[in-house]
TrEMBL record:
This is PHD-type domain-containing protein. It comes from Microthlaspi erraticum. One of its GO terms (molecular function) is zinc ion binding. InterPro entries: EPHD (IPR034732), Histone_Mod_Regulator (IPR050701), Znf_RING/FYVE/PHD (IPR013083). Coiled coil: none annotated. The lineage of its organism: Eukaryota, Viridiplantae, Streptophyta, Embryophyta, Tracheophyta.
């Protein structure tokens, strides 16, 4: 039985090296390749993007972003939706936050759909929610208040300030 290998850099960081011949595909979408992470179910892998846009899923370790947990909590009805982008029933689709359009998160990302991380701070508590928009609803209504954009690790970052709450929106773009 072959073992996974790890490389340690001179700085002490550890990088996982894939075992040759082991096929890893995302169980939530038909897209091949990309940033795959293990789940809490042995031999089951997911794209980071796919996990982010499933509300039932999260990462056990925020630093390593693995394993992805909660895959067994995704409603079975999500696994029978047809993706409007790739036209396949494979894995679990996510829904536009404005309508009943379903698509795979990776398909939406590759098609240029708007995908956002909404971070709300209310009563000193941080809450975050991933939302996405179909091609029709791609441009959400902007919140009122002062806003500015800033680049953060390759993501477009928009911060909106209002009188009642602070809201940060990270929009994921290519």
């Amino acid at each position: 039985m072959a073992l996974d290998m790890f490389m340690i850099s001179p700085h002490g960081s550890v990088k996982h090296v894939r075992k040759p011949g082991i096929k890893r595909d995302c169980c939530l979408c038909p897209v091949k390749g990309g940033a795959l992470k293990p789940t809490d179910v042995e031999t089951v892998w997911v794209h980071v993007t796919c996990a982010w846009f499933q509300p039932e899923m999260c990462f056990a370790s925020d630093g390593k972003m693995e394993p992805a947990v909660g895959i067994l909590s995704i409603p079975s009805s999500n696994f029978v939706k047809i993706c409007v982008i790739c036209k396949q029933i494979h894995g679990s689709c996510t829904q536009c936050c404005k309508c009943s359009t379903y698509y795979h998160a990776m398909c939406a990302s590759r098609a240029g759909c708007r995908m956002e991380l909404h971070c709300l701070e209310k009563n000193g508590r941080q809450n975050s929610k991933m939302v996405s928009y179909c091609s029709y609803h791609r441009a959400p209504n902007p919140d009122t208040g002062l806003s500015y954009t800033n680049s953060f690790r390759g993501l477009l970052c928009k911060e909106v300030l209002s009188k009642t709450r602070r809201k940060v929106v990270l929009a994921l773009f290519h």
